[in-house]
Amino acid sequence: MSDIMDLKNDQTLMAISTGDMSWNKTGSWRYMRPLYENKIPPCTVGCPAHEKIPQYFALVKEKKYKEAWETILPDNPMPGVTGRVCYHPCENVCNRGEYDETIAIHNMERFVADQNLDNHIPEYLVSKEKREEKVAIIGSGPAGLSAAYQLVRQGFKVTVFESANEAGGMLRIGIPSYRLPREILDKEIDDIKRLGVEIRAGITIGKDLPLSNLQKNFDAVLIAVGAYKSWGMQIPGEELKGIRSGLDYLKQYNLQEQATTGKNVVVVGGGNTAIDTARSALRMGAEKVTIVYRRSRAEMPAVPEEIEDAKKEGVQFVFLANPIAFHGNGSVQEVELIKMELGEPDKSGRRRPNPVKGSEYRIEADQVLLAIGEVPDLEFTEGQFKLLHDRLNLDNGQMTSQKGIFACGDAANGPIGTVVDAIATGHRAATAIGQYLRNGKVALNGKMESGVPFDTINLDYFVNEPRPKEQQHHPETLKENFEEVNLGITIEDALNEANRCFSCGTCTYCDNCLIFCPDVAIHLDPVKHEYIIDYDYCKGCGVCVHECPRNAMAFEEELKWNK
Amino acid sequence: MEQIMNETMSKYFNPETTASIKVMEGTHAASQAVKLARVKVISAYPITPQTSIVEKLSELCASGEIDAEFIKVESEHSAMASVVGAESAGVRSFTATSSQGLALMHEILHWAAGARLPIVMVNVNRALAPAWNIWVEQTDSLAQRDTGWIQFYCESNQEVLDMVLQAYRLAEQVMLPVMINLDAFFLSHTSEPVALPKQELVDQFLPPYNPKYKMELEGGHAFGGLAMPDSYMELRYKMQKSMEEAERLIPIVAEEYDHIIGRHHGTFLENYRVADADYLLMTSGTISGTSRIVVDSYREKGIKLGMIKVRTFRPFPTKAIREAVKNAKKVGVIDRNISFGQSGIFFSEAKAALYNAEHRPLMNGYVAGLGGRDVTPETISEIVDHLIASEKGQDLIWIGVKK
Fold first, then answer.
1. Where are the alpha helices (DSSP H) in A98-245?
2. A-chain residue closest to B214, CA distance
């Protein structure tokens, strides 16, 4: 620089500091602060078991199917079961649904489980610490098995009592094998047993062994007996031959591989048991199967895909009709129906069906299977427990009105009626029992919430792509064909679906934040495997937050941090 | 003929200082100068007819013949911003553009000058759209008059090469950016013999650049901060002082270049047969070469015609022009540009320069050759005849407009 530039004073030529300004970091400009912060995605909240869905999807992307499976296992030891039979509430809340089509999460779960049929639950998921306390579990359905698994993982000694000759509860008794092949069920139960869960089958508590015996010999007892007692209709003619509970019918077939089936079968009800009963009756040789449901299709609690499949297979539906009497000479011959109309919504949010006066009519039937709901059979408790709506009443810690006796699944009040709810409440009960046995008191986590609404996803980074179609097997003649109907999705579809997932709130290490940062103030920590924001230089422009496709960045006022 | 050429060439292409003589386009002369200047950062966005400058530079960078970072950008605005960044870090940098591209750079042109960054840019003078036109006109660079950039206008490819080198020498002393202008196609895409000076001599002429203040990892400074009303004006004052310093240094730099490399293109003006001339043409760019022939032909007829070729537009050579016209009766300024609502731009600047002069000749402003229209010896003769016949000055005379 020429000397003449310095004029009279020592001022510089331009607006420039002559002194060292490196103490004045540009981070001091910031009034908003970006935070690298993974958030809980809606699917994980929607899943009663809170499976870490984007996390295992990320591993599927890398074709690490074993690791993906092991990511599901801490929350659910039976993804092969739930991947097939779950009503997938996760998909109902999937953000992708507001963009094109929801992610086929249940197909992905099944895919991951099916890739691991030769693997067993790894030992590292079980605590090395072994505890002396013993826990008795009554019932080896999904709730009991899930609880047993989680208790064994915590190091407790667990004995499961099962009144049937094989473990599985409703999974084995209620769900037909064309939906849940027995080798899948057996494999996943076997995996749980391998961890050290003792299952004592063929023992009915209250008959072979009193409940008090368990109370005496175990440090805690968990009641997971499910709900098997069918509600009757309390209408004339219910005692006629040929009328029975749909669940009994399924149980008979599933345990004895045969069940008396009529030619012209009427199934009453709109839940999954009704659908399972109807489709099983077709497979058992019924010529005509009709489901009678008092509300309309929209209110049916059964999984929509199952209803579709039932239709495909030839099940007939009569909506907005309810039986008021059964007629016949010894055996049922006719069902008398009354037409219904939908009124105001009831407690369940569904519109209440009201009978239409004078609309009675009759349809023929030689067998009627009732699938209008079940309650638990709690005779063995000899009335010692407080009940709510015919189920065991629980406190916030899954404990019954008797100290040290817990309950879960359909036997208790709480979320009921599905496999995944049973698995979830089993997990909660196991956590509660663990806390109870360790500390004498129970404090379970509150409700999980997601911080990733749809409008926080940056759609610029996604293109429309359809959801994969699952292959199905509907043979020409269903008779005696209990082969699995749903055949899952291909590897290509699974990889594509893993990529289609927004991965809401869950970093996929796409490097967008790092690439877009105009101050080069973000780097990836190779050890911690997380992005580090250098707040000395981050000016708080928020570009990283905006350009994160999946809202794995938060943006907060700096003031909040400088208090 | 051969002998004349050899004599002319050996004077022009000094064999002792020349590494090689190559036939090349004006654009490539610019590129070769960038190489000789040991530029470290190049950032440019291609635009006809500047493209071959960038093309050649990217090739030279790719082949390793130039040891420079070539920053690809999505616009001229970013290209100028990139070299502003590089120069702020104390690194010699280069960019080139033309027409719309220069217009897009406008905001950063102010920044480059205000931040006192000695950037050198080559601008190929091209008409502005619409209508689309890729041919020569000077309105693009003249419209950047008040940005604080030093501006040179060249007549030959050799001058382009030499002036890029002199531009760095000048810029880095006065800490102002320099724009070297050349005519679209008439220079940019016309091949001429160009002498490439020896690298060691260029190194001697142009020492490495090392500014006092630069962006560094250690001992950092704050750049381009806020200046309140009590200090901003002083910074503007210093820019003007630096322009005045440039006016002092331009002849010195030309002398130094001549001393080391052995070539001199004149300083602010190139005066051709001016001393005894009654009538003077004032030109710039390639029109000057044609005008020289016309001057000679009028001289043969006994008419005392001369020519002033203007080489610098900023700083404007007020003193040199006053000196050059002090004996002339009439001056005709040929402008290949126009400031709408006024006149040709060189004309209005020259006229303003002479207002306070002791001797004020009659002045006519001629606008010719816009958008690349040919300015032939016949065109210039028409101007000269008009000038000689004029009894009072006229600010705006359109030449060759079809009516």
1. 105-114, 142-153, 170-173, 182-194, 211-217
2. A16
